Amino acid sequence: MARSVLGRGTARERVLEAAMALFGEHGVNGTSLQMIAARLGVGKAAVYYQFRSKEDLVLAVVEPIYDDMARLVTIAEALSTAEARRDVVVSGLIEMCVRHRRLAAVLYGDPAVDSLVQSRPELAATVEQFTALVTGGNLDTHGRVILAMIVNGIYTAAIDPNLADISDADLLQSLQAGTRHLIKML
User: Fold this and answer.
1) What is the pTM of this model?
2) Using CA atoms, how far apart are residues 120 and 123, in angstroms rounded to an integer?
3) From the UniProt annotation, which stretches of this protein bind DNA (predicted)?
4) Which one, 92, 102, 113, 169, has least CB within 10 Å?
5) Could you tell me which of 59, 22, 56 has the C-alpha nearest to residue 37?
């Protein structure tokens, strides 16, 4: 029997790392389980041993972001004003995107991830709650455009290869300062 080159206890993490790298290079739909196995130097069965399906693997890759979103929703919903809820969620979004810079690059705008999230009621509900907290539900057209600029700008700055040389701490500080300035325009 062939022996796996995946180290005991690290196999799952190595599969997740390889998947995230390949998803970043080729997108989720452009990455096969065979590609992940080849990157690791193992057979596809070794990947299936860790994850029952590609969908399970994708969910495991994106899980940290959705766990963070769910925590932010819980914290924000405990606050008394829509403005305070929005501030906590937007600030949390900045921290989340900076902390998960590589993962944000995989998630942001990938149609396969969007489709998978919409197919999972618990994830779709988290995104819906998160979005409602960000918008506050009562923004006019001007406010909605400004808010879209803020949220999309946060994601884009976190994944922009031209900003890869900026430390997480400096990026976090710059995004927080810029966001505070733009939120005043709402």
Assistant:
1) 0.79
2) 5
3) 32-51
4) 169
5) 22
| pLDDT tens-place string over residues 3-20 | 444 444 589 999 999 999
Q: Within a domain: residue 4?
A: no
Name the nearest CA neighbour of 12 among 38, 51, 64. 51
Tell me: do 121 and 47 sit in the same domain: no
5 inside domain: no
Residue-wise pLDDT tens digits, 119-178? 999 999 998 898 888 877 677 888 888 888 888 899 899 989 899 999 999 999 999 999
Q: Are residues 103 and 35 part of one domain?
A: no
Both 162 and 143 in one domain: the answer is: yes
- Give start and end residues of each alpha helix (H) in the chain: 11-26, 33-40, 44-50, 54-77, 82-99, 101-107, 111-119, 121-135, 141-159, 168-183
Q: Are 149 and 95 found together in one domain?
A: yes
Q: Which residues constitute the domain of residue 18?
A: 11-51
